[in-house]
């Protein structure tokens, strides 16, 4: 099994809105016990509930290693504020933050803000890409070591290590620099569901982790290969992207007997992105897709978080660990380290020299 790339696993901890922080902290700790790379917390302007980014900032001190990735909507929001909030999450978590970028497409959501009407998805995903770009520039706008904190000399900052982003987009412009120092990870991890265009183009250009929804390992591999081609066209190394298959899982059923002649593993129900069965069958599905080289891992959304996440960790993950397919401890402390991703160099420096 040594030829296989490391398996990455993540899980969603959202569900019906809850206002008890202990609920979310408990789920994140459970996922951490299973050494999952990260948890996500979904959010949108179309549903009631607490703000995902604020919730995970509350969860951060209650966890030690697991990555924390809230959904961040780039429509109707200010990129400067969003980048500051995500950078703050990276600081309070000690380098475990990410953002799952999404857009807001409905008239009802647009009316909540009253700034502009709803726009086509293609336009909104171009804007999301610009928001990701300006966020990265703002995270780089403070060089490492920009803070001096010399009380005796009266100097807090080395102004030569602060830089203007000077970004002009289609719907916003941002000068910078940021108000939050460069995050511990350099850039918090950016996650995008790249299943469909035009989100796939934004994912290929800006994401570190790309989620794909597919009913077969062959289809997942097709999407992954397309994402890699697009990333290369933007001058990126496709090897620096992690592509995870996104599945909704219902582990309320008992294990199913294999169907006669079935060679591709347990079947997926519905439109191919919904798994219903038991933890062992889910482990078999993950094993077979991973051995086929279709994806780098899985992002699992439990239908019933309290029940299904426990079965994922104590059943599915435990079996994958027993098969030596998934780690039993965190080798590093940051989300980038969990994913095997390097800390990005600051765009405003070159080989240690300021530019």
What does this structure look like?
By secondary structure, this protein is of the alpha/beta class. The chain is built from ten helices and 15 strands. It has helices at 21-33, 52-59, 79-92, 107-113, 121-140, 199-206, 217-233, 279-291, 305-322, 335-339; strands at residues 8-12, 38-41, 67-73, 98-102, 147-150, 155-157, 167-168, 173-174, 189-193, 209-212, 242-250, 274-276, 297-302, 349-350, 353-354. The strands form four sheets. The protein has an eight-stranded parallel beta barrel, surrounded by seven helices. It has a two-stranded antiparallel sheet with strand order 5-6. Helix 1 runs parallel beside helix 9 and helix 6 crosses helix 7. The chain is globular and about 60 Å long. The protein starts with 7 loop residues before the first strand and ends with a strand. Mean pLDDT is 90; it is low at 257-265.
Kindly summarize this structure in a few lines:
The protein has 355 residues and is α/β, with parallel strands linked by helices. 35% of the residues lie in helices and 18% in strands. The chain is globular and about 60 Å long.
